[in-house]
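pinning this so it doesn't scroll away 📌
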Amino acid sequence: MPGREPKELEEQTLTFVREDPPYGPERTSVGLSVGHTSIEGILKKRDVTTVKACLEWVRKLSGEIITQDERTRDKEKATNNHVEANYPSQLIGQDTFYIRCLKRIGRIDHQVAGDCFSSVGAANIYDNKTTKVPTNVVENHLAKKIVPGKRENPSRLWSRVSLLA
């Protein structure tokens, strides 16, 4: 019958999903040598289309019960992650944002660095994305704002940033 998968394929698919719940239809189809649309249909029938639903389904099959208290505790634990800086330049956050691509210039990136203790930040726009760009932002822009009198050794500041990247 068109639109229905054979019973053996359903059993193989569900066994594969039980062993590796986070895998999606594409990766599961590679393991079974079947099209991902067939796998997707089987998973939709069981309402296990998301990773969360797959994990819940596997827990139910194995008899593992998670209470509401455990779920609430896990949510609170995930939201209460906190990092604290005790002095300037101890913790620096850094990121690169793609702006756009311009004719004759190429890709334009926005490099941002911020000191987490003093809430001081620096930003610059670059047309190349080399390894010298983040160093330049920290050493020439952020280091001057954080420690204006101590500019003789900016590499100490950069070594901390490279650990975070």
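📌 and the second one:
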Amino acid sequence: MRRHFVLRAVAACGVLLLFAAGCQVRRQTALTGRASDDWKRSYAISPDGELQIVGANGAVEIQGGSGSTVEVRAERIAHAATDAAAKEIVPRIGIREDVSPDKIVLLTEGLSGIVIGVTIEVNYHVTMPSSARVRVRAVNGDVSVSDVAGRVVLSSTNGQVIGKNLRGGVDARAVNKGVTVSLGSFGRDPVDLRATNGSVALTVPPDVNASLEANYTNGSFDISSDLNYEPFGEQTRRRARGRLNNGGTPITITTINGNIRVQPPAQQ
């Protein structure tokens, strides 16, 4: 019995030594090197065309404006053991383009083959006609869209979703972060905001006519007294329904493990 005990103790110590050695190796191969470049493109797009960006490990920032072109600057970043190694990786970070006058699709492809000891990210900075539509999916990065009148569909995992001065329909979803949206105007297109493990904040014009439904699990619902809001239908601990002014186009907000806040713009 004592012999078995000694053998087990020796084996356990061996495992601990291997674990410690592994930790030491990881410390020695920390990715302290960094390199980046700017990948730039310009595309013509129809006034009601659509821009799609599918990212991986990086943020997406889109600014609406005048003109008829989409201007893209993608910051490609590589992290490796040394700056020199990272510099060799950067040109290999692929971005696939699928372009037509009515739709522009950009897809972060990353690196082909098996690459060990390297991490990459691509951050998109875009200006585009405000009338066009936007569809973005990101991972490990924030999504921010401003001053767009076309419909926007936004989602991020492990990143915030932010919409500023949006004037069309909105579908925005975040996992492990929150959603913050401000509507510059509101028409016939519905608004649907969802967050899992995060909160939702919505800013609406005081004169908005909308039917609001808020669903919240492990969270709370708060609507500013400065808005003309009248509850209707069944109200529960997890759901609130009501009319903003005369009611109308639906606004649906859903959170799991997060709070909901609806408010008018801040006073200047």
